[in-house]
Write a structure and sequence with these properties.
Blueprint (H helix, E strand, L loop, with lengths): L7 E8 L6 H4 L9 H5 L10 H4 L5 E4 L11 H8 L4 E4 L4 H9 L4 E3 L11 E5 L4 E4 L4 E4 L5 H9 L2 H13 L10
Amino acid sequence: MTAAHAIAATGRAWVFGDDLNTDLLAPGAYMKFGIAEIARHCLESVDPRFAAEVRPGDIVFAGRNFGAGSSREQAAEVLRHLGVACVAARSFSGIYYRNGFNLGLPLLVCPEAPTVATGAPVACDLDRARVHDLATGRVLACEPIPAHLVAMIRDGGLLPHLEKRLAARRAPSATDVPTP
């Protein structure tokens, strides 16, 4: 894989525990508003600073059962909206895992995810399924992401991925050009 095609991110670590549910990520009281307003309240009951201080490229680390609860896709979309580059957790709820990839949010199953220190500089290499704790030099191995999901991430999520595939099918090939 060439560096131009690598999916990597570098930022600060935001570390949370187990069972971070969809209502904590996208609080129900704000669901009648747009994604920008919902994102302003992301994780406010767990870490009131998160939505205001998270920066593009930052990485969320968590324990087990990340994204449990409802099937609301806004719980993944708020993290993308805030610029979170990746979520690494011990495990994800099934619906959240699929929603994340559908929306282009990379998710890594990483048994050691919650062992990173909050605020530590970190780098995520999705192609190699690794997280680098730049403060300690540790490399955390994660479960590889299936190739079809990596392709969706590269394309920006399920809808852009499908649009790209449909456009490729519609594009005339050299053999379709009529000869004079």
